[in-house]
Amino acid sequence: MSDFNETVAVAMSGGVDSSAVAALLHAQGLSLVGLTLQLWNQRRLAGKPGIPETSQGRCCSIDDVYDARRVAEHLGIPYYLINAQDRFEAEVVRPFVSEYLAGRTPIPCTLCNNHLKFDQLLLTARQIGADRIATGHYARNHFEEGRQRWVLSRPADRSKDQTYFLFGLTQEQLSRTLFPLGEMQKPAVREMAADHGLALAQKPDSQEICFIPGGSYSDFLKAYLDEQGEALPDSSGELVTAGPNGETAVVGRHGGIHSFTVGQRKGLGLSSPDPLYVLKIHPDSHAVEVGPDTALLSRTLIADRLNWVSIPEPDAPIRVDIKIRHRHEPAPATLRVLGPGPNGDTQIEATFDEPQRAITPGQSAVFYQGDEVAGGGWIV
Questions:
Q1: Which CATH superfamily is domain 297-379 in?
Q2: Residue pair 190/173 in contact by the 8 Å Cβ criterion
Q3: For the whole model, what pTM was predicted?
């Protein structure tokens, strides 16, 4: 780290974790600057149908900005609030809306980390004289001489593991990022925050996506498009079941594919002696295929928009464990590179040892080798 200057910019979200990072590094004598990204106006859609008036429980709220500033004042470090709302809307919100309307289920927090947050924080840090940033993510990174590569690894506290959302980080970004909580357990982080006199030591973790109040994607889509003066596209169609030979039978109708995600059970509007689940969404025909829970099991996935983190792109099949959702336990699989797909991006095919439930287009697939993040991509 000798090539870096001594000033570190701390990404301060107003939560316990990033505040504890600021207190820890301050106690170590580092020169710090606090940075908060203002990403979304929490009152923007308030009052529209299905949108609550308050923003409690969401990250990046006005209260969080206040808390971050208060921690910076308590520690006596400079603090800057960066307005990144336009970029956030262009690079996270609009792609989220487009993907969901196309029948896929994107992960906005991963989009935010991959395309905006780390890039903007490092850019701003350099502008104010800091070469490195520190965040409250639960992850670990180090440079390995043998590979001449920065390695991203899972944290000591597996229950707080956030590497699933960080697979898009570049080698340059990893080289300039500190994850001080990577070796700590969450209870110890809260205790450390209290020891440093931080009033928010027991503040609950945020539970909702910052721009989707109430947790209803469908309500957000309607409210956002209405605000934009755009009509919700008519993607109504048929609910169908598939027979053993691929034949389909219509069992009902639906109001739009944006209301469904693979694995969904509730809200189908169907009565059946056995529970039915969403198996596939067909954006071209607007058909939503439903069936029994057992039909959600699959052994293969295809992913593109790849980023190789701790290893270079493999030139032969490799063994990995793959996470297909944040709370999914990584499952063993064999991965091979296929070459360019229809959109020109290199694709991989992964074959799991055991069938996995509800592999969902639009979500991330993150590849692990032991604790290391080998890479990741987006399920097609």
A1: Translation factors (2.40.30.10)
A2: no
A3: 0.91
